[in-house]
Design a protein that fits this description.
The protein is mainly alpha-helical. Helix content is about 70%, strand content about 0%. The chain folds into 2 domains: about 350 residues, no CATH class; about 55 residues. This is Cell wall polymerase.
């Protein structure tokens, strides 16, 4: 009886969007790994060991496993996600520490656990456990209240997983946790914090593009103009104004230390290529250059399924994973890329709608965490492929090849749908 009520309460729009996106993603993974010498009919005449050599078939296996995960997620009592949020979070912290110790380096990163033929990336799964933990914590506090201890606990819950992920040299996955700020903003975090962070990002970017003395001169002139035209207000807030000025100047001159001493050589190269695409066209700029060629060559309608030359001849490295969007652009053209964008925007709007109708703070906060994480991946991944964001190794949700990515986003989304299906039974906390 409960299952009948559940099937009627599940958000079928979100479920259908998920099925559609995973299906389209599988088609593009197949196209990205397609070889004219191995047509579809010959592949199915091969033995199973031969099939496992193809990314598209392995992705099909991951999708089958994801279906099993979905069944498990919807069968589990929805209250368990709230009750065991901290336990799951603590278990993931332990798993990240174990990964950091025992994982062998792969492409300079210690972020993969190998379980026989299967490789799992705990950093992917840390997103949903962190989302559960912070949602559980925020259900018991009010961010509008200036309780420093509670806010520091929230900061600690959010920053501990990315700190361990950075230690394993997987910076791209760590950046995703910054997306939680959007969920915190919905729950009452001061918009001033977002403005300060945005301003700090602008200052850091300008410090890389503009000569330091010029930039300090501009900020000095701005400070002087504020003093001239608002001298009374300026005098009342003189300590704050001077402190802000000192911090900004420190950031301008401190960016060199961070850039040269903290960032690794390949990370510096990626930033240089982002600023100047012609800086290393045959090295670190190769991926983005070939990706833009692939997307641009698709034109309005694309070259057709399996007809992409950039795709077929492997001009774009990591095309099944981080650069899957350029396969969409080359073979399906502008219409294909726009359809992909519309699919993601529709999913995000639907998730926010689902989040807003929750009866509990826990459910609503978790919904916004889901939307924020998917939004970050969507923006950064597509930004990478068209040269608007540095290449940081972030997959496109439901499209990119990989079991860890598909499973983590499936778990992230279907925990929300499980909570939503029983929302009428929730008590307002």
């Amino acid at each position: 009886m409960n299952q009948v009520r559940y099937s009627r309460s599940i958000d079928w729009v979100t479920l259908l969007l998920y099925i559609l996106m995973v299906g389209v993603g599988l088609l593009n993974v197949y196209a990205a790994s397609y070889s004219p010498e191995m047509p579809f009919s010959r592949v199915f005449s091969s033995d199973w060991s031969g099939l496992m050599a193809f990314n598209w078939f392995k992705q099909l296996v991951w999708i089958g496993a994801a279906v099993v995960l979905i069944v498990v997620l919807v069968v589990i009592d929805y209250k368990a996600y709230d009750t065991f949020a901290y336990v799951l979070y603590g278990g993931m912290i332990v798993l990240l520490l174990v990964t950091l110790v025992i994982a062998r380096p792969i492409a300079g990163s210690r972020s993969w656990l190998e379980l026989g033929p299967v490789r799992l990336q705990p950093a992917e799964f840390a997103k949903f456990t962190t989302a559960l933990a912070v949602s559980r914590f925020m259900a018991g506090i009010n961010l509008r209240q200036h309780n420093f201890r509670q806010q520091m606990v929230l900061v600690g819950l959010t920053l501990l997983p990315p700190a361990l992920i950075i230690a394993s040299n997987e910076t791209g996955q760590a950046l995703v946790f910054g997306a939680f700020l959007l969920a915190y903003f919905r729950e009452g975090m001061s918009p001033l914090i977002l403005l300060i962070l945005a301003a700090a990002a602008v200052v850091l970017i300008l410090s890389l593009l503009v000569p330091k003395l010029w930039l300090v001169g501009v900020f000095t002139v701005i400070l002087a103009l504020v003093f001239v035209f608002n001298s009374r207000i300026f005098r009342h807030h003189l300590p704050l104004a001077l402190s802000t000025y000192a911090v900004v100047v420190g950031m301008v001159f401190g960016v060199d230390f961070f850039y040269n001493s903290v960032l690794q050589p390949h990370q510096r190269k990626r930033i240089e290529v982002l600023i100047n695409p012609s800086a290393d066209p045959l090295g670190f700029g190769w991926n983005v250059t070939q990706s833009k060629i692939a997307i641009g060559s698709g034109g309005l309608l694309g070259k057709g399924f399996l007809e992409g030359t950039q795709t077929r001849f492997d001009f774009v490295p990591e095309q099944s994973t981080d650069f899957i969007f350029c396969t969409v652009g080359e073979e399906w053209g502008w219409f294909g890329t726009m359809l992909t964008v519309v699919l993601f925007m529709t999913l995000l709007v639907r998730i926010i709608y689902v989040a807003e109708r929750q009866k509990s703070v826990f459910g609503r906060t978790y919904g916004y965490c889901v939307a924020s994480i998917i939004f970050f991946h969507f923006c950064v991944n597509i930004g990478m492929t068209i040269g608007l964001a540095p290449v940081v190794g972030i997959p496109l949700p439901f499209f990119s090849y990989g079991g860890s990515s598909l499973w983590s986003f499936t778990i992230l989304l279907f925990i929300l749908l499980a909570i939503d299906a029983y929302r009428k039974q929730d008590l307002v906390r």
